[in-house]
Amino acid sequence: MKDISAQRPGKEAFRADILRHLTYTLGKDAGHASDYDWRMALSFAIRDRIVGPWFASTRRTWAENRKRVYYLSMEFLIGRILEDAAINLGLRDLAAEVLADLGQDFATLAGEEPDAALGNGGLGRLAACYMESMATVGCPSYGYGIRYEHGLFRQRFEGGQQVETAEDWLKTRNPWEFERPESAYTIGFKGEVAEKDGRALWTPDETVIASAYDTPVVGWQGRWANTLRLWSAKPTQAFDLERFNRGDYAAAAEPETLARTISRVLYPEDTTYQGKELRLKQEFFLTSAAIQDILRRYLETHTDLTALPTHVAIQMNDTHPALAGPELIRLLTDAHGIGFEEAFDIAQACLGYTNHTLLPEALERWSTWLVGNILPRHMQIIERIDSLHRRRFPNRPHYVGIVKHHEVRMGELAFISAHRVNGVSALHTELVKERLFPELNKLHPGRIVNETNGVTPRRWLRMANPALSGLITETIGEGWEDHLDRLTGLEPHVEDKGFRDAFAGAKRANKVATANWIARTTGISVSPDALFDVQVKRLHEYKRQLLNILQTVAQWHFIRENPNLPHVPRVKIFGGKAAPGYVVAKEIIHLINDVAAVINNDPRTGDLLKVVYPANYNVSMAEHLIPAADLSEQISTAGKEASGTGNMKLSLNGALTIGTLDGANVEIREKVGAENFFLFGLTADEVEERRKDVEHARHAILANQPLQDVLQMIAEGRFSPGQRDRYHGIVDRMWHHDYFLVASDFGAYHAEQGEVDRSYREADDWTRKAALNTARMGFFSSDRAIRGYMEDIWGVDSAL
Ligand code: 26W
């Protein structure tokens, strides 16, 4: 493919492009254009440059009859696109220059783009990183998702409590997508199944149209681009004219409203699954549209459906698209006349399933009644898959299976429908084998494989951290962005004081910028000389933000009791949303904000301790906070965090981790070196062991005076002066049902935070450790992860 530099426009040409879009696409005169107009014109000018590589990639895939990967995900947590696309195309600096000449500021315009939040957290952001890496490594692929009208809710704090409001990223024009009204499929629900000529005939009695919107995703240096195809629900019958003519105006629009409900809003739960009919409909809507589209594309150039697995790999991002198996089998049998067993084998050879969680409450189980009602034909197929599997594996234990106790277990369905099942970190994959699917693993040895998560270095280092990126390029030259292993080239320089000073200088500059941002957004003034201690992620009990805030209170108490000791100033930074129905998580948010209000106004501790919790954590806020972090909090109860990816972003940006042996922390610590990682806490096995003592929490609390003091202060209402009993629930749970072992790990955590302080005092040595983190994190590039999927699961070669 052509060298990207050859395609890069000159300054004049790019300026002309922007002005042409301003005039002819926006219909605005430069003299009267608003920031919005300029942003649109700039975005269209950049998008124009993506189209070339995009067409070239698509043509190559067709011409070379390449196998394609289809990544099915209910979530894509994309964030802003403008700067990321500009950087990948090598246009970032040129665009800034041209805009400056036009009296505009690139960063201001880019900062006004809405943050596309079509996802909840880790799983959705991983899908976005993987889309970018598939484009970077030249893996021909399509992402399939839902074009939610409303992404993840916006978060505000009122009196310290989370309040949700609707997100509306589509209120203004989305310049990145192309509407494809010609790519539309009918999606059916409910109805009857009959038999005709020996084939099942499903006649749905509800239908909607899935209509495609394509967003090109361009990889590093524009060498390849793929498509993210998002489906929007439209009515089959737009408007009931008869009702309208009768004067029933609201009812006339009813079918439209109902149909559009399916792609209206992203479900904000990422931990507790809820057996809601609309959610099941969303899952089938995505899956059916994707499978129909895949078969349509295949049949344009092929006739033999038995060869499908040679040309098509379908990846299910968790079980949310697990109806892909039944839907593919349905189309192969009912529409194309293939026998059931053969159809099953074809589907299985195409499908892969990624598991992202072991939490029992997050495992999807749909009632057979609901599935039978909404998807009667699929319910039959699911039963047949289950009995086929039972027949093929007669030694399958009676308690193993897809349909049990009037529920369809989506994990088992996905496992049995797929030829590969993968976990997302080494530890997690072992737990998937041993704890989640022990019997299926025995029946199918080798099916479960590990693909440790990764993050895209383009967004999470090059774009988010220009200061450090500049230093890296100065030190080891260009090319590390798509060969992240080359960061090891920094290691020899870590022994050079000049390099360490430059590294510390980059971190310091990021912290100054973040301190200013914190002052602007929260009104709290923090010192950039303090240790920036960051815990950013969804709120969940297993992630133990509670452990962090309890230790913060202990530290505050300690400083007050020992005013004459030399303390290391710290800024505790929290970010994250709680699912709207997750009462305990919301209480923890409230507590953090209440504690912050007390500590931040305590003249006795002053700059020695601040707690900030900016509302509405999202991808853009992550890009801002992560480069400024000194310490990364990865403190989940061991065995609960499947992988984590924020842990990777923080360490890559030169934060040291304080963490448990959970998820990818284990591998991060192995790579960066135990001496550059603050480890504490019970292991996954010890956690299981400790739970056998029903009084584990009481024992742990009684053995730890600082923790007792903290719980006492909270119980007395020190942080809720107007309402003494506000946190009695939290305190009570700590004593009696501390399922996530906050108490048992408190002592070790508190002690290790002391180690962090001692290390931070040795500023130069801290910088050495931080730089070694950056230098040794190359493994965690999502390019490496994607190459693993291509080789172990998809059987696809790079087209580059
Ligand atoms: C049906 C409700 C629901 C929705 C989403 C249940 C569970 C989920 C996701 C599986 C939760 C999730 O995002 N898991 C995270 O996936 C990341 C990417 O692999 C991992 O890094 C995180 O450890 C894991 O919590």
From TrEMBL:
The modification N6-(pyridoxal phosphate)lysine is found at K649. It holds the Pfam family Phosphorylase. SUPFAM superfamilies: UDP-Glycosyltransferase/glycogen phosphorylase. It comes from Albidovulum denitrificans. The keyword Transferase applies. GO terms for biological process: glycogen catabolic process. Its EC number is 2.4.1.1. Signal peptide: none annotated. Allosteric enzyme that catalyzes the rate-limiting step in glycogen catabolism, the phosphorolytic cleavage of glycogen to produce glucose-1-phosphate, and plays a central role in maintaining cellular and organismal glucose homeostasis. Phosphorylase is an important allosteric enzyme in carbohydrate metabolism. Enzymes from different sources differ in their regulatory mechanisms and in their natural substrates. However, all known phosphorylases share catalytic and structural properties. Keywords: Allosteric enzyme, Carbohydrate metabolism, Cytoplasm, Glycosyltransferase, Pyridoxal phosphate, Transferase. Belongs to the glycogen phosphorylase family. It comes from the Bacteria. It is an enzyme of class 2 (transferase). CDD domains: GT35_Glycogen_Phosphorylase. It catalyses: [(1->4)-alpha-D-glucosyl](n) + phosphate = [(1->4)-alpha-D-glucosyl](n-1) + alpha-D-glucose 1-phosphate. GO terms for cellular component: cytoplasm. This is Alpha-1,4 glucan phosphorylase. The keyword Cytoplasm applies. It is found in: Cytoplasm. Its cofactor is pyridoxal 5'-phosphate. One of its GO terms (molecular function) is glycogen phosphorylase activity.
